[in-house]
Amino acid sequence: xxxxxxxxxxxxxxxxxxxxxxxxxxxxxxxxxxxxxxxxxxxxxxxxxxxxxxxxxxxxxxxxxxxxxxxxxxxxxxxxxxxxxxxxxxxxxxxxxxxxxxxxxxxxxxxxxxxxxxxxxxxxxxxxxxxxxxxxxxxxxxxxxxxxxxxxxxxxxxxxxxxxxxxxxxxxxxxxxxxxxxxxxxxxxxxxxxxxxxxxxxxxxxxxx
Length: 209
Fold this sequence. Notes:
Helix content is 52%, strand content 13%.
């Protein structure tokens, strides 16, 4: 029996996962939290093999937090269960040690089979992501800059695209305002634009946000 924990702040998702796995023959839901600040405590209290986590979980301000979590719990497997664009977020998630990425639009049996495979040691990402990563690796550096945005750059870009000011982004990511300004300049250069409006539009066109 694979023991799973759920970290998701959407009540509908919590209810759906709890209901689906209630009578499941191979998977048992043993813990559930709605914020990243409670994940570590849940993992200490419960014996969890696979953590199913939303990438937009409250308190999960950086994918680097996932990397740090896996250092504390090295045997833990993580499946990201998200509405965000897999092709944008998966490369950095793979680097952080995540085992799989499942879109919330998928059927529940896809999530279940992914959990079972991941528990056995599989790394599961879509063929599109695998092709994309292989293609990125072969491209000249100048052609792949926008695809090689760091986790932090993507996070800053998401906040800026949601209309946040530098100061608000700095507070959300626990960074200083000058650092956010530096990230913004780097994003402008990488996406080859000169102002924030064009930056946001380019990010949307490339499905980065």
